[in-house]
Design goal:
single chain, mainly alpha, 0% strand, elongated
Length: 206
């Protein structure tokens, strides 16, 4: 996470550095990224960089965390527009995410991120629900979910349903980049999996 010196910068200077970082992380994956390129593009001395962040990993995960926050807000908004329908909300959120990925400035950045996924990256993107802050976010989501039509008996079960649906979503997003899946094909595959989850996987016996 950024140091206080970064947080005390003007919005303009913060955006200059994060824009330069996103440009570099779009060019190459994290492990190949160069701090020299970032500070050159941002127009700051190397010493200043280390006053703001510990290293390039610190900056990279800060950008991902900011993206996760925006994702959370967008999902809540979509959930509210769908009157708490969890399944439709995941479909709409997935589609809006793919559309955002189609923008040139976003596509290569997220392609490098998803195709070099590790546990920490996935945890940052999805906000692992065992972390306190993520728990607070999830409980914020619960208040917007209409659980009347869900086969759940308590919040813990709802919690696990959400995790399962997020795992399915993440796998489909990775596939979009790994296989360069067209948007209509990606939506068809994701819609089928969401429909199967909604229907249930076990036949009802009399």
């Amino acid at each position: 996470m950024p140091k206080p010196t970064f947080l005390n910068l003007s919005t303009e200077k913060q955006e200059s550095l994060t824009k330069a970082a996103k440009k570099e992380f779009s060019r190459v994956p994290l492990y190949e990224a160069s701090i020299s390129n970032i500070i050159k593009d941002a127009g700051i001395p190397r010493g200043s960089f280390y006053q703001y962040f510990e290293d390039k990993e610190d900056l990279f995960y800060f950008l991902l965390d900011e993206h996760s926050k925006r994702n959370h807000e967008r999902f809540i908004s979509i959930l509210n527009m769908n009157n708490g329908d969890l399944f439709q909300s995941f479909l709409d959120w997935f589609k809006s995410t793919i559309i955002a990925f189609e923008e040139p400035e976003n596509r290569q950045y997220f392609k490098n991120t998803f195709l070099n996924m590790n546990y920490r990256i996935e945890k940052t993107i999805t906000q692992n629900i065992f972390e306190e802050r993520a728990k607070n976010r999830f409980f914020g989501v619960i208040n917007s979910i209409n659980s009347e039509n869900l086969n759940v008996t308590n919040e813990e079960e709802l919690h696990h349903i959400f995790r399962i649906m997020m795992a399915v979503t993440m796998r489909n997003l990775v596939a979009v980049f790994a296989k360069d899946v067209p948007m209509n094909q990606a939506m068809k595959a994701f819609s089928l999996e969401i429909t199967l989850l909604k229907r249930g996987l076990c036949k009802q016996t009399l």
